[in-house]
Design brief:
alpha+beta; Alpha-Beta Plaits; 8-stranded antiparallel β-barrel
Length: 214
């Protein structure tokens, strides 16, 4: 389905195998509900890598970019819980972008797979929407496509939660959702050629804010 809202927080992380069970429990039981409790956070999803350079992909959909500059969000980032401090200490090589949604097209419902593409700043996302819409209607296994542009300054903001964690900031991000794993990378190549870094992930869990469509 199309992304909810006009902004996103998208992150990738490596987590050591011995720490993954607690990471998943923490994200499901604490982090997702905590973020969805911030006014303007609409939906959160966690994916586990199938073929990617990071173990997990997390996507939060947000009403608009002002939410990511709000006192409620920044207060949360500067007051991590003890569990958050412990679990984030096990996360390695984070990549994280606070983004504005450039375009988002999709059918209804969640899809089990997503290709997440980190793209350089010279990729002009605006020019790809028409092709993405054509691809959505031509390929039965492709169910949604999204393009997001990162705000580098806000993404680099230092908070207590991010302290002591060097974080890579992507410039542009594309997400391609589908019901068939083999369709994702070819769809990405149709849109962006061989540019960028692509990882393929499987949906693990999702949570939507109260009163919003699942």
């Amino acid at each position: 389905m199309p992304l909810l809202g006009q902004a996103t927080v998208i992150s990738w992380n490596r987590v050591a195998p011995a720490a993954r069970a607690e990471f998943e429990q923490w994200h499901t039981e604490e982090h997702l509900p905590e973020r969805l409790g911030i006014p303007g956070f609409l939906r959160g999803r966690r994916y586990q890598a199938i073929e990617a350079d990071r173990d997990y992909l997390i996507v939060y959909e947000v009403r608009d970019f002002d939410v990511l500059q709000s006192a409620a969000y920044l207060t949360r980032l500067n007051a991590p819980t003890p569990w958050t401090r412990r679990v984030t200490g096990t996360m390695r090589d984070p990549v994280r972008g606070l983004c504005r949604t450039v375009w988002s097209v999709g059918l209804s419902g969640h899809s089990p797979f997503v290709a997440a593409v980190r793209l350089p700043s010279n990729v002009l996302l605006d020019t790809q929407q028409e092709q993405a819409e054509s691809l959505l209607h031509a390929e039965a296994c492709i169910t949604a496509l999204h393009a997001c542009s990162t705000e580098p300054h806000e993404s680099a903001r230092l908070t207590v939660e991010r302290m002591h964690r060097a974080t890579e900031i992507p410039q542009r991000i594309a997400l391609i959702e589908g019901s068939r794993l083999a369709s994702l990378r070819p769809a990405g190549r149709q849109l962006f050629g061989n540019t960028g870094t692509t990882g393929v992930f499987r949906l693990q869990t999702a949570l939507t804010g109260s009163g919003l469509p699942e």
